[in-house]
Design brief:
It is built from 2 helices and 2 strands, in the order E-H-E-H. By secondary structure, it is α+β, with helices and mostly antiparallel strands.
């Protein structure tokens, strides 16, 4: 399980995130992932993966301190959201109640 990853909205990080997500999708050893979203309590401050530019978060509608699109518009929607599996796995050891299936 890969947790709390993210990236800055530049070409290098966008490419890295795309390849990262595709790699996990194509390798059965990864049972899931979570992106680090910051969230509304952070406001425009997203201390992950930036130069303290106050670029918002993955929260829908989040904007940067300067009013420009935040991480939701520049990272979540174009890069991460398309890689969320269309059909999520609901059984197996990694699911709720999965140990009962052993």
């Amino acid at each position: 399980m890969i947790t709390e990853f993210g990236g800055y909205p530049n070409d290098k990080c966008k490419s890295m995130l795309t390849e990262y997500l595709k790699y996990m999708a194509n390798n059965d050893v990864y049972i899931g992932w979570t992106a680090w979203a910051a969230g509304p309590l952070w406001g425009t401050n997203s201390p992950c993966c930036n130069d303290n530019a106050q670029a918002g978060s993955f929260e829908p509608g989040s904007k940067g301190a300067d009013g420009k699109p935040g991480y939701y518009d520049t990272i979540w929607q174009p890069i991460i959201q398309p890689e969320v599996p269309a059909k999520l796995k609901r059984d197996g050891i990694s699911s709720v109640g999965g140990c009962d299936n052993l």
